Amino acid sequence: MASLGVNIDHIANVREARKTFEPDPVTMVLLAELGGADGITVHLREDRRHIQDRDLNLLKDTVHSRLNLEMAATEEMTSIALNTIPDMVTLVPERREEVTTEGGLDVIKHKNKLRKIIQRLSDSNIPVSLFVDPVQEQLEICAELQAGWIELHTGKYSISKNKKRALELSILKESTAKAKSYGLRVNAGHGLTYQNVEQIAAIEGIEELNIGHTIISRALAVGLTQAVKEMKSLIINPRKDNILI
Ligand code: PXP
Predict the structure, then answer these.
(1) Where are the chain's structural domains?
(2) Cα dihedral: 17, 22, 26, 30 (round 10)
(3) What is the pLDDT of residues 196-221, one digit of tens each?
(4) Is 190 a catalytic residue?
(5) Is 70 one of the catalytic residues?
(6) Of all protein residues, whose CA lies closest to atom 2 belonging to ligand 1?
(7) What is the third-level CATH fold of 3-236?
(8) Which of 31, 42, 64, 201 is most open to solvent, judged by the fewest CB atoms within 10 Å of its CB?
(9) Whose CA is nearest to atom 4 of ligand 1?
(10) In terms of pTM, does the model score above 0.85?
């Protein structure tokens, strides 16, 4: 059964829309954890468009579940991670002009740079996860880099429909099995919703799902604790029949 990492970046997005003090993602974490969040994820972006350094510092002291720091593989972010010591670092690609993380890390292209960063984080006992597309060649390099963890990008699955979605689902299943056979531990996320999460939650071997936008959206209607509870119950008890939509 997969656990749930709740990404709270979109709470900070609302605050930053007015550059004010509310809503405060740090205090909202309490509600997410009450709803059953197994972990809290934040992406400290280089342009600080949502989560701020102050948030990360306070979250380090106040998160009672696990704190997963998503970040670009840069010198600035590496030294922030080494100062903060989150429970996990997930390395993601980052482009300033993107609305959200668009594709997985190209671990083949950036192999040498990633190797050094993984080593430095691992020396400080910070588990490292690489956010990658479910592509065989990328998985092989993740294993070679000994990152320990990967997070499979579920974006293509999330935006596709019918036969294409069934194909993307089978690619994710095969990639999970392949990654595990290489000794990697597997998380997954991006674009998951209340409507499409169950098939992913039912994949054997996926340890954690990182989900943000859909939970924060539902929280506007039902409150964050309830929104997290509803997502948890879908993940804990996914329907295994054919529910592809
Ligand atoms: N995983 C990673 C690596 C991400 O970059 C994001 C988006 O910040 C998510 C998961 C969560 O995606 P979503 O907000 O679409 O649920």
Answers:
(1) 3-236
(2) -120
(3) 999 999 999 999 999 999 999 999 99
(4) yes
(5) yes
(6) 190
(7) TIM Barrel (3.20.20)
(8) 64
(9) 190
(10) yes
